[in-house]
Amino acid sequence: MVTMTYGEAAKNALHEEMQRDPTVWALGEDLRRGGVFGQYKGLPEIYGPDRISDAPISEAAIMGVAVGAALSGTRPVVEMRFADFALCAVDELVNQAAKARYMFGGQAKVPIVVREPMGMWRSSAAQHSQSLESWYTHIPGLVVVCPSSPVDNYGLLKSAIRCDDPVVYMEHKNLWALEGEVDNNDPLPLGRCRFLRKGTDITLVSWSATVHETMAAAKTLNDAGASVEVIDLRTLWPWDKERVFDSVKKTGRLIVAHESVQAGGFGAEIAATVSDVCFRELKAPVKRLGAPRVPIAYAPPLEDTVRVTAAMIAETARKLMKM
Amino acid sequence: MTADPRAPQAARNLDLDRLLAHHKLMWRIRAFEEAALRANTDKLVLGAIHPSIGQEGVAVGVCSNLRTDDILASTHRGHGHTLAKGADPTAMMRELLGREGGTSNGKGGSMHIADFSVGMLGANGVVAANIHITAGAAHAIKLRGEDRVACSIFGDGAINRGPFLEGLNWAKVFELPALFVCEDNGYASTTRTADMTAGKGPAARAEAIGLPAMEVDGNDVVALDEAVRDAVAAIRAGGGPRFINAKTYRLTGHTAADPDGYRARDDVAAAWKRCPITRLAQTLADAGVRGDQLASHERDAIEEMDAVYDDAKAAPWPPLSRAFADVQDVGDPRNGAY
């Protein structure tokens, strides 16, 4: 059992996977200085410039080169710096990485991990704060991972690197310093949710940083006498449908909470699917909590108005439970 | 950029066996494209096809200098490149018809034709996308310490997309074993490239990024063969990336459906006289090759590709389950899969 931060957990995972597999290498802007968030610190000295590679500010080239290198026997870990900047490389990710295996009839796979630090972070404003995970769930071929804790960032990054599919791996920028215990050295399975709390009255599903708001809400509700089940989805595609269904069939109530815009967010997919499959067991309408459909503002009070908070989650849960 | 200093064809020492092979391969490409156009007329190729008739010299001049384990990434107009890289035309034609046994089992069609077994990493439906993929393949080759070369062939339209700058810059910064060939047919889709392009053109842009760049007549397969041979040798020896602008002309429309109303008929008719096959045939005839030998290349190629088309017509559709195969390892793509 070792305590480490969310950022260190990912660094340790990458370090161990690079030791384990000589075909793994990382490329991105400023990686030789340890990455813009320090998440690669120490690795350049160990692995040299070939395997922890700097790159020009050419997101499309970084992504496209990774695709070509993945089709040629290596396993690139792509650093996009901010999820927002990955939009400069959408053709390379969506038309190339996600399609190559299928459109070439299975002649090759594209084992790349695309790290896209996401989410609101200290007045970063409209172009450095977005949570666009739902976009990628819509693209056949991609895996989408949004870890919320050090232990998951460690185990899921390992799995993402070992996965032969292109994985969009979205770490939340506000979580880099979050400490937690990492209890083993094994990869964690993609597509498996984590139960953070077991309960019988209501199911709360979330991912990434919103998991921590959800847990705070669950504590408040628990103190008020409700039995709350909290699921950290961890992987958005594929998502752990069976376990979410089982939970909702037991509790009869569901709230999906996420930082990204509510309209067209992945909460909509979960809500629609659960409403279909668990209709008979539902005791209340399925609720979604996401951001309003506005860009993220710079001024802290304006930024805060679009956040999904523990208080909002708890209040919505109380209404569903008529508390 | 260096102008081609070579002497006219007639004055050169010609490797006749090699040039006869080039002549034969160009005819095979021409006959494949003619068969594909027939398949289009017969409504058996339902998607878009972009014939390379008139541009066979580039495919042959470039690919004849690549080893099977060298990498090629191509464009939407990729049949000729793929065939010249060594792919089986039977599997290619089946792919164009969307049939079982196609190069991609009927899932890619003409615009995504690929044969990884001969180092052909795919035609690409997005203009210039193959430039990054080539840089990536070359990057992997360098990381693995291999002596292979990665090559991309793209059109002149591609030089106005970002990957031209980003990919060439990348290849030069990392001194990658990459050859970039601009197959310059003068048209970006149906628009004259010169009307939409600032500056002095593809080779000047490549040179500005630091790549040794050369202008070659892509319809003179003898000249292009030599230029590519030298470039590939330099790249394989560790000399870093190189650039060749190969001037050519597309003798048909942009796609099989393009009536080509934007080019004067006189210009197209004149271009037929500069067709790379006709020119090489003249060179070979001047060097004493018998006319019936050259004619047999045409006849054999047409016979081969007719048989290829007949085979594809008779081939079955892929099983429907194939629609759900090779999507990804993780997760089930079917709706309601729980």
From TrEMBL, chain A:
<dbReference type="Pfam" id="PF02779">
    <property type="entry name" value="Transket_pyr"/>
</dbReference>
<keyword id="KW-0786">Thiamine pyrophosphate</keyword>
<dbReference type="InterPro" id="IPR029061">
    <property type="entry name" value="THDP-binding"/>
</dbReference>
<feature type="domain" description="Transketolase-like pyrimidine-binding">
    <location>
        <begin position="4"/>
        <end position="177"/>
    </location>
</feature>
<dbReference type="InterPro" id="IPR033248">
    <property type="entry name" value="Transketolase_C"/>
</dbReference>
<keyword id="KW-0670">Pyruvate</keyword>
<dbReference type="GO" id="GO:0016491">
    <property type="term" value="F:oxidoreductase activity"/>
</dbReference>
<dbReference type="InterPro" id="IPR009014">
    <property type="entry name" value="Transketo_C/PFOR_II"/>
</dbReference>
<protein>
    <submittedName>
        <fullName>Pyruvate dehydrogenase E1 component beta subunit</fullName>
    </submittedName>
</protein>
<dbReference type="Pfam" id="PF02780">
    <property type="entry name" value="Transketolase_C"/>
</dbReference>
<dbReference type="InterPro" id="IPR005475">
    <property type="entry name" value="Transketolase-like_Pyr-bd"/>
</dbReference>
<keyword id="KW-0560">Oxidoreductase</keyword>
UniProtKB/TrEMBL annotation, chain B:
<dbReference type="InterPro" id="IPR050642">
    <property type="entry name" value="PDH_E1_Alpha_Subunit"/>
</dbReference>
<dbReference type="InterPro" id="IPR029061">
    <property type="entry name" value="THDP-binding"/>
</dbReference>
<keyword id="KW-0670">Pyruvate</keyword>
<dbReference type="GO" id="GO:0004739">
    <property type="term" value="F:pyruvate dehydrogenase (acetyl-transferring) activity"/>
</dbReference>
<keyword id="KW-0786">Thiamine pyrophosphate</keyword>
<comment type="function">
    <text>The pyruvate dehydrogenase complex catalyzes the overall conversion of pyruvate to acetyl-CoA and CO(2). It contains multiple copies of three enzymatic components: pyruvate dehydrogenase (E1), dihydrolipoamide acetyltransferase (E2) and lipoamide dehydrogenase (E3).</text>
</comment>
<keyword id="KW-0560">Oxidoreductase</keyword>
<feature type="domain" description="Dehydrogenase E1 component">
    <location>
        <begin position="26"/>
        <end position="318"/>
    </location>
</feature>
<dbReference type="InterPro" id="IPR001017">
    <property type="entry name" value="DH_E1"/>
</dbReference>
<dbReference type="GO" id="GO:0006086">
    <property type="term" value="P:pyruvate decarboxylation to acetyl-CoA"/>
</dbReference>
<dbReference type="Pfam" id="PF00676">
    <property type="entry name" value="E1_dh"/>
</dbReference>
<protein>
    <submittedName>
        <fullName>Pyruvate dehydrogenase E1 component alpha subunit</fullName>
    </submittedName>
</protein>
